[in-house]
């Protein structure tokens, strides 16, 4: 191999390494749980899984609604240079009366449930969550 060929291969290798770092690595997470309102299941509640970003809009990774028993399961992936910060937003009307828009509760998923694969094999179990409670940093959302 000539010096010129070696240099060409070396430059291609380095370029691919930097390009892959600039695009980021694929990371994923998943979450399951059950939502209740007072004494019954919170059916048909919208839940969205996001990759939280500080400088740009959050990236939607998945969304679903709870089943008739209040159960849900979400998973998704994102390509980021740094570690993703996954969170779920829960949009509901539990004990909300006739107030406009919906209550929004945000829960961040622990970093130990972020994996460097496209499809997660480990899911964060939120457990059973009572929506009638008032949560810190709860807000209202009309445009979700």
From TrEMBL:
<comment type="similarity">
    <text>Belongs to the nematode transthyretin-like family.</text>
</comment>
<keyword id="KW-0964">Secreted</keyword>
<feature type="signal peptide">
    <location>
        <begin position="1"/>
        <end position="22"/>
    </location>
</feature>
<dbReference type="GO" id="GO:0009986">
    <property type="term" value="C:cell surface"/>
</dbReference>
<protein>
    <recommendedName>
        <fullName>Transthyretin-like family protein</fullName>
    </recommendedName>
</protein>
<dbReference type="Pfam" id="PF01060">
    <property type="entry name" value="TTR-52"/>
</dbReference>
<keyword id="KW-0732">Signal</keyword>
<dbReference type="InterPro" id="IPR038479">
    <property type="entry name" value="Transthyretin-like_sf"/>
</dbReference>
<dbReference type="GO" id="GO:0005576">
    <property type="term" value="C:extracellular region"/>
</dbReference>
<dbReference type="InterPro" id="IPR001534">
    <property type="entry name" value="Transthyretin-like"/>
</dbReference>
């Amino acid at each position: 191999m000539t010096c010129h060929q070696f240099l060409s291969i070396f430059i291609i290798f380095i370029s691919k390494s930097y390009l892959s770092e600039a695009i980021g690595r694929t990371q994923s997470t998943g979450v399951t749980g059950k939502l209740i309102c007072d004494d019954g299941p919170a059916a048909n509640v919208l839940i969205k899984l996001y990759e939280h970003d500080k400088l740009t809009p959050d990236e939607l990774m998945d969304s679903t609604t709870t089943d008739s028993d209040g159960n849900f399961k979400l998973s998704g992936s994102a390509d980021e240079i740094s570690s993703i910060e996954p969170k779920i937003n829960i949009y509901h009307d539990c004990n909300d009366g006739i107030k406009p828009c919906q209550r929004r509760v945000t829960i961040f998923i622990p970093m130990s449930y972020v994996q460097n694969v496209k499809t997660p094999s480990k899911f964060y179990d939120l457990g059973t969550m009572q929506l009638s409670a008032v949560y810190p940093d709860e807000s209202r959302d009309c445009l979700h």
